[in-house]
Amino acid sequence: MRTSSSVSSIRIAPSILSADFARLGEEVRAIEKAGADLVHFDVMDNHYVPNLTIGPLVCEAIRPHVKIGIDVHLMVEPVDALIPLFAKAGANLITFHPEASRHVDRTLQLIRDHGCKAGLVLNPATPVQVLDHVWDKLDIVLLMSVNPGFGGQKFIPSTLPKLRTLRAAITAHQAAGGQEIWLEVDGGVKVDNIAEIVRAGADTCVAGSAVFGAPDADGGYRNVMNALRTEAAKAAAQA
Ligand code: DX5
Ligand code: ZN
């Protein structure tokens, strides 16, 4: 597990929202080969967010193409009916937005009951207090650093102090005997800002346009992944 002096376990999760959807199998194989730790899978319903993407059938279709975990980010409302479907389709982590579930505690438990890691997603304007009564049921906290709905947006700087607050809360939770909880950041993560994001406390970074914006033909995905890791390591050196 990551401590403030080590980023050896920083996870990088390319978001396939920016992949070529006509070649999704090849795209996920390419990011796994390039060293990705997780496939970040953005599910949008044109209700909770103003965009429409992919569902359990696509998750099931890419599952045989990679060994790495599939990190399903649900931007849907309601949430619960999709959980068994994604678990069956091969999801490993499932996160959802608390505003989209009437019963947050129940939804977290439902995810775990289906054998997946469970997490809540905080929008830029969602207070961290929404986590107050469910710390024991969290395997991951996903902090949005853009408003959800689209890839390629600009990182919102107020995410950094919020990350520091969350890192302190997770450290306190674990010091009191609590379970491991990952802290993931999603939106606008690039080679030039990942160091400060990791320094602020993230241990898992989603990167969509940064990775898939590179041409893969000449190993571009690997180059970006390596650059992201090198920058993340700088954060460790400065810690
Ligand atoms: C936004 C999605 C993100 C997005 C990240 O709603 O949750 O995962 O794809 O893309 P970039 O890295 O381009 O901001
Ligand atoms: Zn996402």
Question: How does this model look, in words?
Answer:
The protein is an alpha/beta fold and 239 residues long. Helices cover 33% and strands 18% of the residues. It has a single domain, classed as TIM Barrel (Alpha-Beta Barrel), CATH 3.20.20.70. The protein has an 8-stranded parallel beta sheet. Strand 6, helix 5 and strand 7 form a beta-alpha-beta unit. The radius of gyration is 16 Å and the shape is globular. The N terminus is likely disordered.
In short, what is this structure?
This protein has helices at 24-33, 56-62, 82-88, 104-113, 159-175, 194-199, 209-212, 220-238, and strands at residues 11-14, 38-44, 69-75, 93-96, 117-122, 140-144, 182-186, 204-207. With 239 residues, it is an alpha/beta fold. The chain has one domain: Aldolase class I (TIM Barrel).
Write the layout of secondary structure elements.
Elements: E1 11-14, H1 24-33, E2 38-44, H2 56-62, E3 69-75, H3 82-88, E4 93-96, H4 104-113, E5 117-122, E6 140-144, H5 159-175, E7 182-186, H6 194-199, E8 204-207, H7 209-212, H8 220-238
Parallel strand pairs: 1-8, 2-3, 3-4, 4-5, 5-6, 6-7, 7-8
From the 3D structure, determine the CATH topology: TIM Barrel
Number of domains: 1
Tally of alpha and pi helices: 8
N to C succession of SSEs? EHEHEHEHEEHEHEHH
The secondary-structure class comes to alpha/beta
Count of DSSP E strands?
A: 8
Low-pLDDT regions: 1-7
Q: Return the CATH architecture.
A: Alpha-Beta Barrel
The share of residues in helices is 25-40%
Strand order of the largest sheet: 1-8-7-6-5-4-3-2
Q: Which sheet architecture does the biggest sheet show? A: 8 strands, parallel
Large-scale geometry: globular
